[in-house]
Amino acid sequence: MGSCDFCTRATNPGANHTSVSSHWCDSTRSCWSGMRQDCILQLSVDLCALCAVYIREKLGEYKELARIEGSSLGCDEIVAARGTAEDLEGGGSHATLNDSVADKALEAVKTIAKDRTIEMSEGIACILGEEMQELERRQSDQRKSIDNSRETLQNLREMIYKLHGTCTEIGKLTERMAALDQSVQVMPVMAALPMSG
User: How many C-beta neighbours within 10 Å does residue 29 have?
Assistant: First the structure.
């Protein structure tokens, strides 16, 4: 079974990944083709594990990105807040200014994390939805195949019964013909015998 783009990305945390929806490929779909029923559940568990690894990796990336963006936002807000504080008479305390900047940075981080989480959730839901549809389709095909095989075996069984009955009738007819043939051969012999007086 070949490794697809999704599997490679999920198992390689150091790689530069794109969006989740681009990880799905034809080779992943082909991984499910021709598999025995007892292998499907194991592969589903493996895919869930790969998704978990991928999510953990992406959350780490988003956390780092949010930290960087939050730091940048914090610097900008600090500069703007300092300018505003200098223009105001009797500006607010330094602690209040830091709290305001921290709150804004925290809100920015929350917004970024929420957006990334929604993106990942949609991508994973799309992948799992396609997987479930494919699994249901294969199960339906398997049920149809089993029904067709059962019907074929039933027809074959009926044909065997009919053949057995035909062979039995032929055997009986053969025995009757053999008995009739023997009686026909015995009659001339008996006619040729001299009559006792």
Answer: 13
